[in-house]
Amino acid sequence: MKDFTVIPCTKRDADAIVTARHYSRKPSIFWKGFALVRGGQIEGVAVYGQPSAAIQKHAFHERSFRLYELSRVVVQTPERNAASFLIGRSLQMLETPCAVVSYADSAWGHTGCIYQATNWLYTGATKSHDHLYLIDGVATHPMTLRDRGITNPKEWARLNDIETVPPKEKHRYFYMLGGKRDRRLMRDTLRYPAMPYPKGEANRYDDGERVEISMDDGSGDLFC
To answer: Does this model's pTM top 0.90?
Structure first.
């Protein structure tokens, strides 16, 4: 990846790219963000945030290390291997020891090719909720409804005759960071067994118009 570098970025600037180009169009919880940069321009972002309460509580038998979720990856450049380069370098910039969980959404045809390319541990597919809600023909996540003030999506759907559909599975991956002993301990205490990688075609994790974001004088802040 000649001429590319990866540096920390702010939530504001990560959100600008995520809301414009990530298929979800929604920012996630932001703990740390990293930008893929070339020629003073932001060519991609990786956002690490808080995993679900269930994963925090149940993923490991015992946990004395930080657990992140790699929740958003967006790459604007068509350069080959840009996503795996961004993920690989950003992982190296996290404090250790720590573990990272991430998901590939099969509803969008994703199987996690970029995680496979960067040697993550695959632990199978999971469903995080019972139903999606068909609103004007669009399958809508219950969290989206809660964001709109609908506190009980199931009851709201029943009262408004909203059709529900079962959700697609998400492929779950883990990555362990630290010394050899730390990584072995994390692997030994992980509750989920390792499984063979699922097969699938590589798909881009973003779309939409390019977002022009330039670097400042090197302080690490970015601006549109």
So the answer is: no
